[in-house]
Amino acid sequence: MTDHQEILRGLYDETLVGNGPRVLELTRQGLETGLTPESMLFDALIPSLEEVGARFERGDFFVPEMLVAGRAMSGALDVLRPLLAETGAQTVGTFLMSTVKGDVHDIGKNLVNIMLEGAGFHVIDLGVQVSPEKVVAGVQEHKPDIVGFSAFLTTTMPMFKANINALQKAGLRDDVIVMVGGAPVTQEYADAVGADGYAADAATAVRKAKELLAARRATVGV
């Protein structure tokens, strides 16, 4: 049992400092010694990423630290994801993510994706330069709980409204929670375009997504 505890502690510590190769090594070691994928995810990796988020919010960590921790966890997730799928592990919810049409920036989006996956969301990333038509098709195909739009340029921010209008027109707006974010985006702008949620950074995005989803489920009684 001690071995398992040591591996879990190691996964937590090494994810925190972003030591990708060691996290991968410990993940494989864990599987070899009979640790379940769920245990590694919920007892070590997710708590570690939550601590990364907390440190970022306190100002002890910055974007580079978040990125390396996220990447370290991402490697472990690549190994664990197929195994978790086999065991039918519950996901928190499905999140459809994209960078809006006219915008090719994806570092922030990718970081949010990693953090969401780490928190137990099933993330579908449509990529960059995503048109409203593609968003609508993605919602119809994947039936996500939340749709996220990212914009880095002020010139592409109006695409938030275009995307929301397209969802409205397709009769899908009430089926999904819409979240927006990106460097130039503000809460005021999110409210103006009719988004349900806004987050200034990846850590807040995860917390906000969970809150919005819990509130939605409480309302519809799911």
Sum up the structure in keywords.
globular; alpha/beta; 222 residues; Rossmann fold; 5-stranded parallel β-sheet; Met_Synthase/Corrinoid; methyltransferase; Cobalamin-bd; transferase; Methyltransferase, Methionine Synthase (B12-binding Domains), Chain A, domain 1
Strand and helix map with partners:
Layout: H1 2-16, H2 20-32, H3 37-58, H4 63-87, E1 94-99, H5 107-118, E2 122-125, H6 132-142, E3 146-150, H7 158-169, E4 177-181, H8 187-193, E5 197-198, H9 202-220
Parallel strand pairs: 1-2, 1-3, 3-4, 4-5
Organism: Pseudonocardia thermophila
InterPro entries: Cbl-bd_cap, Cobalamin-bd, Cobalamin-bd_sf, Met_Synthase/Corrinoid, Meth_synthase_dom
Family: Belongs to the methylamine corrinoid protein family.
Structural commentary:
Helices cover 61% and strands 10% of the residues. It has 222 residues and is α/β, with parallel strands linked by helices. It folds into two domains: 2-87, Methyltransferase, Methionine Synthase (B12-binding Domains), Chain A, domain 1; 94-220, Rossmann fold (3-Layer(aba) Sandwich). A five-stranded parallel beta sheet has the order 2-1-3-4-5, with helices on both faces. The longest helix is centred in the middle third of the chain and has 25 residues, at 63-87. The protein is globular and about 55 Å long. The model has no long low-confidence stretch (mean pLDDT 91).
